[in-house]
Structure formats: C-alpha cells, structure tokens
Specification:
The protein is an alpha+beta fold. Helices cover 33% and strands 32% of the residues. Helix 1 packs antiparallel against helix 2.
C-alpha cells in the first residue's frame, strides 16, 4: 500500500492499493458511515427506453457495507452517493457499488482516525516492502501450495502425484518426473522471494535432489528452505507457521506474532489474568489489569468495541488486531472476539 496524502482539513486519507493484502487492510479501516471516494463507472440513460451507456465517473459514497472477494481480487463498497462528477452522470442519494482492485486509488474520510487504525495503515505500507512467503507441503501422494500474506494463509489447489506401486519402474519414474516438473512450475510462478518446502517424509528431499541435479532450482530466483512437518493438510501448514524452525524466516511476519499473542492469552485464562468479552475487558481496563488487548477485525465497526478501544488508547494500552477469518481469529471468536491479558 502507498499513502499518497492525508488531508487534515477533511480528515481524509488517500491511498493506493497494490495487492489483495492492501484491499484486506483497507476493509479493516473503513466502517459503516465512513466516506469513500474513487473512480467508477455508471450506466447513463439518455432516454427512458435506452439500454444506457457506461460512463467514467468519480464517486464519493457513504459506506453501508463492504465485501472482499478474494477470488476476483476486488474490494466492494456499497452505499449511497453523496458526491460525484460529472454531475450529469451522477444521481445523488442513489445506491452504488465502488469496486476497488490492486493499483486503484481511493480516498477515505472518517470523523476521526484512532491510533490503532493508523497502525493498520502503517503495517500495510511496511508489509508491502517485504518479501512474501510461498509454501509447498509435500508427501508421496500430493503437494499443497499456499501463500502467507499479511492477512493470513491462502491455500491453492492440491497437486496429486498419481503414483502407484503397481506401476513399472519406468512408468513410475516417468510419472514422478512429470509431477516434480509440475510442482517446480507452480513454484516458478509463485509471486514470492522465499519458498518453504515441507513434508513428513523423504519426498521433499527427493524433490530437492531432482531440482538440484536438473539445474531447475538454480534457475528459479527464489530462496529455498526445506523443513519437516507432520502432515500435508492445512493443519500441517499451520503447524509449520507456528514452529520454531521457521522463526528466522518468518521474523516480522504478522501471523507468527498472532500465534504468540494468542498463546499468552490462553495461558492467562487459567490464572484469571486474561479476560474476554467487551464487559470483562472493560473492567480489566478500569482496574488497570490489561496490558494488551486482542480484537478481531470483524467487530471493529461495533460502536461498543470502538468505545472500548478508544478508552484503551487513552490509557496507552497496546491493541492487536486479528484477522477473524484465520485460525487465530477463529480462536478469539470463541472468546467473544475481544480479549486482554
């Protein structure tokens, strides 16, 4: 994400989204009632019977709802138009949807910008400069590719080996070669600087040997790490992200930090040091018993949550925002989406 300008007079932030992670970050900071301005298209009908013609417009709307489509890589804001140009193609107070994609620019206007939302923006800008991590979990039956983004893990289609012990040695070797080539093609096309290849057995080592002997890995301009995990399901990849083996690789990655924070929160439940839910966390704040607050992004628009976080900011309490759709966020959801320790 790139911050283009902050307009103090209108409390408006102009940014450019460069990736799906940026779209996710933008969705986290835009609430119902905020204003969003961007380029769009409207169908203009000269006469009642016309099918209409699409016209380029600039729209500012009051947000009522947002939706992130990871498949189409689009962030949609729905709401009523409060401003637009050219005026002849814009009908004020009518409903419209702004579609924001990577490389699009938008302007966000809020009544106030609390520090925890500014921190989301700063992290998005910082993360855009980091190499992203590609992961291949592999055993002798399949390979599961995944990306580690700022917003969490994004799993791709599994690649099956189609190997069988009933094959002749020649057919087995030929099929294995095709499978390895397919995996390396996926790795080549991964938009990452680092790739971790992990598995429970020796297949990962055989893949490394094949790629080294054929000179494939030397041609791929990525840094490779080969690590061990217990299985090649999604749980195995989550296990990989949490493991000490990748501490150096994932240094600074948000997900690893979230797992650590959740671990501290869960540990404190037994002793009563950790609290969950708006009411209990509020009491902990009042009693000066909260050092860190954990909150899911899915409840940031809730007025009671925002009041709680505003109180925490005044007290200089650290606020950590989780992705509600990821594993740690789902854990926090079972504790009413808000916790502290």
């Amino acid at each position: 994400m790139k911050v283009i300008k902050f307009y103090e007079a209108s409390n408006s932030l102009k940014v450019r989204a460069d990736s799906i992670e940026d779209l996710w970050a933008i969705q986290r900071i835009v609430f119902e009632g905020d204003l969003v301005k961007s380029e769009s298209v409207r169908r203009f009908k000269g006469n009642e019977g016309d099918t209409g013609e699409l016209k380029d417009v600039v729209i500012r709307l009051k947000v009522e709802k947002s939706e992130l489509d990871k498949t189409a890589v689009r962030l949609r804001f729905m709401g009523k138009i409060v401003e637009g140009r050219p005026l002849e193609y814009v009908k004020l107070n009518s409903y419209h949807t702004l579609n924001i994609a990577p490389e699009d620019t938008l302007e966000i206007t809020k009544s106030e910008w609390p520090d925890y939302l500014i921190e989301v923006v700063k992290n998005a800008v910082k993360n855009s400069k980091k190499p992203r991590l590609g992961i291949i979990a592999i055993d002798d039956e399949k390979a599961l590719p995944a990306y580690l983004y700022g917003y969490g893990l994004n799993f791709k289609d599994e690649i099956y080996s189609r190997l069988s012990k009933r094959m002749s040695p020649k057919d087995f070797a030929e099929q294995q070669k095709k499978w390895y080539d397919e995996i390396f093609e996926v790795i080549t096309n991964m938009d990452t600087d680092i790739v971790v290849i992990a598995g429970p057995g020796f297949t990962k080592d055989e893949l490394k040997k094949y790629g080294t002997e054929k000179g494939i890995m030397k041609k791929i301009t990525k840094k490779f790490f080969f690590l061990k995990i217990s299985n090649v399901e999604r749980t195995g990849i989550y296990e990989l992200i949490k493991s000490d083996d990748v501490a150096e690789i994932l240094q600074g990655e948000r997900m690893r930090q979230e797992f650590k924070l959740m671990g501290e929160f869960l540990e404190g439940l037994g002793s009563g040091r950790s609290k969950s839910g708006i009411a209990e966390v509020g009491k902990a704040l009042d009693n000066y018993e909260a050092g860190t607050i954990l909150v899911n992004d899915s409840v940031l628009s809730d007025s009671k949550v925002r009041e709680l976080l505003g109180d925490a900011e005044k007290r200089k309490i650290k606020i950590e925002i989780f992705n509600a759709d990821d594993e740690v966020g789902r854990q926090l959801h079972s504790f009413k989406d808000v916790g502290c320790f």
